[in-house]
Amino acid sequence: MSTDVTAKSPAPAPPGGSGPAAGGLLGVMLAGLRRNMRQYGMLIALGLIVVLFAIWTDGDLLLPRNVSNLVLQNSYILILAIGMMLVIIAGHIDLSVGSLTAFTGAFAAVLTVQHGVSWPVALVLCLLVGAAAGSVQGYLIAYLGIPSFIVTLAGMLLFRGLTEILLKGQTLGPFPDGLQKLGNGFLPETGPNTNYHNLTLLLGLVLIAAVVWQEVRDRRRQQEFSLDVLPARLFLLKLTALVAAILVVTLLLASYKGTPIVLIVLGVLIVGYGYVMRNAVFGRHIYAIGGNLPAAKLSGVKDKKVTFYVFLNMGVLAALAGLVVAARLNAASPKAGVNFELEAIASAFIGGASMSGGVGTVLGAIIGGLVLGVLNNGMNLLSVGTDWQQVIKGLALLVAVGFDVWNKRKSGS
């Protein structure tokens, strides 16, 4: 039997050009975005939300004072979101962080206001209390096998009750000046009068240099291992956008009071936890047990130990967030921290975490928290009622998780 072999003619070029190069930079951008939609989808959404609210509020959203307040108002949610992202990557959930936040704030108030304990000592003791609370919950979950939902739901009720007992149903304050600066303070003025906060400008330039160096370094490493990298033009566009965003935020902060102290704390946390999750063995083990627990066990990962430390870490970050929110309000309240756990969970999922675990990044949690923060701030500036604010935030969470499900199905197909 004879076989008729014919050469296949090349596929016709799309209208308006010849092949992949026809689209130019736009074509390269679209192709790169399609391959990295999960990574950049929420970052693009954040940019669009900022632009829309800046237009709707006639620029009030981007006033230096408002940008500074945006950082201060959302700092404790971002701190919680970092820890919650690790918990969700490991395949668990933590409903107790809002109540633990309130409890540690109340504990700090009792120590400093009622018993005259110096604020640095109170800060350390509060972090230890958070570590103890997280370790107890982690032990129950990791070693006794009680589901995290049940353990942390019990913790939510327990710590809320203990907060009421400590404060006897009343607000307690004010805090010492040193502790207040954690939630409301700014870096001091230095150098000549330039109409800008000089130290903030310096930090911004250092951050730009660090980001450019890190991005170029990561790209070269990926190329050395023959991994997929962004096309050169899209990489340059990404780098330009990052530098421009940092520069704009730096100038806005520098033209008001400078860099909030809590922003320095957040920066240290983002860099530290980002490094752990990208490069450290512990971070890889968190991804492993969340992505495929049986395979992780067969690979020698000590899943119980990792889970224990994930919840211990969440307790410490909840205590830190409690100190920040109490310092910002300059008082401890029995109603502090209400719904903080929901805000942190929503930030993680909006930032790219997966319900099944094993997926997510620290930067994604920050982006998710900023999306919610900008939505809250923008709607407040537009005098949107709290009822509609809840509706809009709920829809934003639903869209983010729906996008995650759609992206998984598309990748699978």
Account of the 3D structure:
The protein has helices spanning 24-35, 37-56, 64-89, 97-114, 119-142, 148-167, 177-184, 198-224, 232-254, 261-279, 281-291, 293-298, 303-329, 340-350, 362-381, 386-412. The model is unreliable at 1-22 (pLDDT under 50). The protein has 16 helices and no strands. With 413 residues, it is mainly α. The chain is globular and about 60 Å long. It is 72% helix and 0% strand.
Main attributes of the structure:
single chain, 413 residues, mainly alpha, globular, disordered N terminus
SSE blueprint and pairings:
Layout: H1 24-35, H2 37-56, H3 64-89, H4 97-114, H5 119-142, H6 148-167, H7 177-184, H8 198-224, H9 232-254, H10 261-279, H11 281-291, H12 293-298, H13 303-329, H14 340-350, H15 362-381, H16 386-412
**Parts with pLDDT < 50 across at least 5 consecutive residues:** 1-22
Helices and strands: which structural class? Answer: mainly alpha
Distance between the termini: 37 Å
List SSEs in N-to-C order: HHHHHHHHHHHHHHHH
Oligomeric assembly: single chain
How many individual helices? 16
Radius of gyration: 24 Å
Q: Percent of residues in beta strands?
A: under 5%
Averaged pLDDT, please?
A: 87
Task: Give a short summary of the structure.
By secondary structure, the protein is mainly α.
